[in-house]
Amino acid sequence: MTRKAIPEPAPIARRNPQQARAQLKVELILEAAMRLLDKGDLQALTTNAVAEKAGVSIGTLYQYFDDKAAILDALAQKEVDELAAKALASLTGLEPAGGPGERIRRVMRAVLGAYGGRPRVHRLLLEYGLGRGRTSRLNPLYESISSLLAAGGVQGPGGKLRPMGPADAFVLTYAISGVLRAYVAREEEPAGRKDVEDALVRLALRFVGIEEEGGAARSADVPAPPVRQKKSAAGSAAGAGKAQR
User: Fold this and answer.
1) Would you say 177 and 142 are in contact if contact means Cβ atoms under 8 Å apart?
2) The dihedral sign for the CA sequence 71, 77, 80, 82
3) Which domains does the chain have, with CATH numbers?
4) pLDDT, position 96
5) d(CA 84, CA 139)
6) Which residues pair with 149 in a beta bridge?
7) Where is the HTH tetR-type domain positioned along the sequence (predicted)?
8) Cα distances (angstroms) measured from residue 131 to each of 22, 99, 127
9) Terminal CA-to-CA distance of the chain, rounded, Å?
10) What is the SS3 assignment for 117?
């Protein structure tokens, strides 16, 4: 007697949150996950805990997310999109007050100020993304920053733009992003944020041949003004003695 094959159950169709009510539920779920991550870690995060924190049933949660990994993926992508918008806005707007290098500071503040001011959540999601080899989600942001730097260069003294080739723009973009990723990934700040900002600005300015002197930036190909040495009292007296002879 031949047994009939038992058909496998059809996979649950995930709802696409197009309506405002459905989008609100997704936002509640993601915000609940962020709050739990701010107090715990990735291992302690469960779909049941997220549903309870969000005030929705576990069945409702599964209508939009397959599992915990899907929640983390959506959360990471959402935050990367917001980070990219802030970082690109700091580069595409008018040059802010503050002189050369100010846009580099704006980019850093955009990155470190992401994730709703929750550095712990930022670090955990960064570890999650990099640990799973999903650094590609940051590539569009890096490519946009590199293209903007290559097209516009870096502003030097007097508002003059210092041009930058595609290769230089690529190197500078990934040098700065590497520092910021390492900074965010640490549980404790390795140095004061202002000191890191200053170091990144010096890196960017010197990379394109602009040096800071006495708090003001100048082009490296423009010689520094000569420094006059003051004569000592003994030297002045000796010179006066020679003049009388």
Assistant:
1) yes
2) negative
3) 13-66 (1.10.10.60), 73-219 (1.10.357)
4) 55
5) 10
6) none
7) 23-83
8) 31, 38, 6
9) 133
10) helix
Distance CA 90, CA 96 (A): 9
The label of the residue with tokens 């990219």 reads 84
Residue 123 CB neighbours (<10 A): 17
Joined tokens for residue 106: 């704006």
Amino acid at 48: N
Which residues are 217's β-sheet partners? 212
Distance CA 83, CA 106 (A): 12
Instruction: Please state the pTM of the whole predicted model.
Output: 0.64
CA distances to 176, 177, 215, 245 from 209, rounded to whole Å, are: 17, 20, 16, 51
In sequence order, the 6+-apart residues with CB closer than 8 A to the CB of 38 are 118, 120, 121
Structure-token pair, residue 13:
């169709």
Nearest alpha-carbon partner for 180 in 162, 171, 193, 167: 193
For 182-218, the pLDDT digits (tens) are 877 776 666 677 888 888 888 888 887 876 544 444 4
